[in-house]
Amino acid sequence: MALSGKLIGYVEISKSGDVFHDLLRHKPHEMVTIAPDKVHDCELHEGERGAVGSVITWHYTTHDGKRKTSKQIIESVNEENHTIVLKVIGGELVDGQYKSFTNTFHVEPKGDGKVATWTFAFEKVDTSVPYPTIEMDYLCNLIKDLDAHNHAK
């Protein structure tokens, strides 16, 4: 069994990519009011919100009811294709489960609509560590909630 892996999740969305890109990059704290059952806090530790090199900690609850944290650094941003790359540097994912863990979010066209894509690239500490499907389900469901909220506006 491989220790390195990649997991990709897709969610069809009704809004353009710039809405999600702006929310994730510049206004992540607004997710607390949009999806309070999933996101509890988004702390900025270093840098400016949305800037490459900024460090933030997410406090969240996954669909299995577990409260978790994820400290991340923004590694890169691409405005044109609405991409944000976040490297996990603290929290449950990298404390004993994964040697490295990177989340990439981007939005691309699909037919007449758009699709939001999460890509996880990771290295597990050993073969007993499961694939991060709980985290992928969580983020895909969060995007659905954010899309429903933005669609209702």
Write the SSE topology.
Blueprint: E1 4-13, H1 17-26, H2 31-34, E2 39-46, E3 55-61, E4 67-78, E5 83-91, E6 98-110, E7 113-124, H3 133-152
Antiparallel strand pairs: 1-7, 2-3, 3-4, 4-5, 5-6, 6-7
Please provide a written account of the structure:
With 153 residues, this protein is of the alpha+beta class. 22% of the residues lie in helices and 46% in strands. It is built from 3 helices and 7 strands. It has helices at residues 17-26, 31-34, 133-152; strands at 4-13, 39-46, 55-61, 67-78, 83-91, 98-110, 113-124. It has a 7-stranded antiparallel β-sheet with strand order 1-7-6-5-4-3-2. A hairpin with an 8-residue loop joins strand 2 (39-46) and strand 3 (55-61). The mean pLDDT is 91.
Characterize this entry briefly.
Helix content is 22%, strand content 46%. With 153 residues, the chain is an alpha+beta fold. The radius of gyration is 15 Å and the shape is globular.
